[in-house]
Design a protein that fits this description.
Helices cover 13% and strands 57% of the residues. By secondary structure, the protein is mainly β. The strands form two sheets. It has a six-stranded antiparallel beta sheet with strand order 1-2-3-4-12-11. Strands 5, 6, 7, 8, 9 and 10 form a six-stranded antiparallel beta sheet that branches. The longest helix is centred in the middle third of the chain and has 11 residues, at 70-80. The chain is elongated and about 70 Å long. The mean pLDDT is 88.
């Protein structure tokens, strides 16, 4: 917590608040090694001191940073595409998945895209193979692009702007800003 002054701190007003946690679950997604830099913040001090709970009354800006490992991505994609029982995920240049259906080994790959205005995340399926043979696109119509709006919702009444998605060392690194 970085207050502007002692008087501002008494009102729960801070120039900067940094929140860190090892694991954060939000909307079916599990993020790890999360760090959230908050600027121009007012918190409910009574709630913080009494209940040990942070309740924001005002937040000027949030800049989240977090990682998703292969298991987190696997759980999330399994919820999005239940037609493919995913058994393994690798994070390389693309998201590579393996599974089994009807006794056949399956392999799929997908790419992640941010919209030009950084307000939407899209999972685009590149390829699906069954027993090593490419499945024609006409037979994979159930694999539609998965789109996630980052606009405000009742759950999160702020807009999330992702500045980057990177894959490093089998981890998906997510960086962004919330307005």
């Amino acid at each position: 917590l970085t207050p502007q002054s002692l008087e501002a701190a008494r009102r729960g007003e801070f120039m900067r608040v940094v929140l860190e946690c090892r694991r954060l679950v939000y909307d079916g997604m599990t993020f790890e090694n999360v760090k959230i830099n908050c600027r121009d913040v007012q918190i409910d001090l009574a709630r913080l001191l009494g209940e040990k709970e942070i309740h924001f009354l005002r937040v000027g800006e949030l800049r989240p940073w977090g990682e998703m490992g292969p298991e987190s991505v696997k759980r999330f994609l399994s919820l999005q595409v239940p037609e493919i029982p995913i058994t393994d995920v690798k994070l390389r240049q693309k998201v590579l998945m393996r599974g089994r259906a009807l006794g056949l080994p399956l392999e799929a790959s997908a790419r992640l895209y941010l919209s030009a205005d950084h307000t939407q995340l899209t999972v685009h399926w590149d390829d699906l193979k069954a027993a090593g043979v490419r499945v024609p696109p006409a037979l994979t119509s159930f694999l539609q692009d998965i789109e996630f709006s980052l606009e405000p919702t009742p759950k999160l009444p702020a807009r999330i702007l992702l500045s980057s998605l990177e894959i490093e060392n089998d981890r998906l690194i997510v960086k962004g800003r919330v307005e």
